[in-house]
Design brief:
Blueprint: H1 2-8, H2 21-31, H3 38-50, E1 52-55, H4 63-74, E2 88-91, H5 96-103, E3 109-114, H6 124-137, E4 141-145, H7 148-152, H8 156-170, E5 174-178, H9 187-200, E6 204-206, H10 218-235, E7 240-242, H11 250-264, E8 276-278, H12 280-294
Parallel strand pairs: 1-2, 1-8, 2-3, 3-4, 4-5, 5-6, 6-7
Helix pairs in contact: 2-10, 3-11, 3-12, 4-5, 6-8, 8-9, 9-10, 10-11
């Protein structure tokens, strides 16, 4: 009985299950064997487009560049009628006001990175101010980076408390928590980081900043999707998923949709609960849509540069 009582005091994330690496990798490969053709493929491509967070996170970002990206978010390819918009534009906090104005009335969300992106190396009060600034400028969503050094040092309660504080600072904005999975090293750590983020209040869990390699991979995303599934079964709370970085081809994006459907079900197959963090992916999807509709590929020169 003493052991049982002591276990009740251990946070759920500290009891994250061990992950079978071989099993995860083999299952992830199987998702790439599904055949998607004709109308189903076209519908899938349009769904992928509608799930993209079109992103520019460079030191050389300007108001003009952000406005151009916002136009593309609303009008992905004017030569093809009936295309959906992307899900969101993701920019630095200093560019939120520009993006928000350009997106007005479109339904496209304005997301902002925060918390000393991409390193996460800043004091908590600085991260909170960074978050509040982005939200006050109009951000609908905040993409935060966990304190990666603290996580690697095993200071999980610190990571939990910081995520909870940032969630509170977000107010009504949705919070995506970036784990930077390419640094975590093992699937066990990916699962633990996912559980910490969800228990601390994340609305989404996200693989990567896109600034290091490897970024998103199918096996890592599978581990995170299974964490979301288990969290939903336990709490009834739905959490979103955002693989980011390294997904530039529509064929790969369709494999991700297959994986989402088979692990979480169709309820997650919309941009409310699943996103792609990408920019170059959009043009490849557009090229494939034109191919499906006309039977011929257009040159990449016919599509705007993100």
């Amino acid at each position: 009985m003493a052991i049982a009582r002591s276990l009740q005091t251990i946070p759920d994330f500290a009891l994250s299950p061990r992950i079978d690496q071989v099993g995860v990798e083999e299952r992830a490969v199987r998702f790439t064997t599904r055949s998607i053709k004709k109308e189903t493929k076209l519908n899938g491509l349009k769904l992928v487009l509608n799930m993209i967070d079109l992103t520019t996170l460079e030191g050389k970002d300007t108001d003009g560049k952000v406005k151009q990206l916002c136009y593309k978010a609303i009008h992905p390819h004017d030569a093809v009628p009936g295309l959906p918009t992307v899900a969101a534009i993701c920019v630095y906090p200093s560019m939120v006001k520009t993006a928000k104005k350009a997106l007005k009335g479109s339904g496209v969300k304005c997301a902002s990175v925060a918390t000393a992106f991409p390193s996460g190396q800043a004091p908590k009060d600085v991260k909170i101010r960074d978050t509040k600034y982005a939200v006050n400028e109009g951000a609908d969503e905040v993409d935060m980076v966990i304190s990666r050094g603290k996580f690697h040092a095993g200071e999980y309660n610190f990571v939990f408390d910081e995520i909870a504080a940032i969630k509170e600072a977000c107010g009504d904005a949705r919070l995506k928590v970036i784990l930077e999975t390419g640094e975590l090293g093992t699937f066990d750590k990916v699962r633990r980081a996912s559980d910490i983020a969800m228990h601390a209040g994340a609305d989404f869990i996200k693989t990567s900043t896109g600034k290091i390699q490897p970024a998103a991979t199918m096996p890592v995303t599978l581990v995170m999707l299974e964490a979301i599934r288990d969290f939903y079964y336990k709490t009834g709370k739905r959490i979103g998923m955002k693989p980011a970085g390294g997904i530039s081809k529509s064929k790969l994006a369709l494999h991700y949709l297959v994986m989402v459907k088979e692990v979480l079900g169709e309820d997650w197959l919309n941009n409310e609960w699943f996103r792609f963090g990408a920019s170059s992916l959009a043009n490849d999807v557009l090229m494939q849509i034109v191919k499906e509709q006309t039977g011929v590929y257009q040159s990449a020169n016919y599509f705007s540069v993100d």
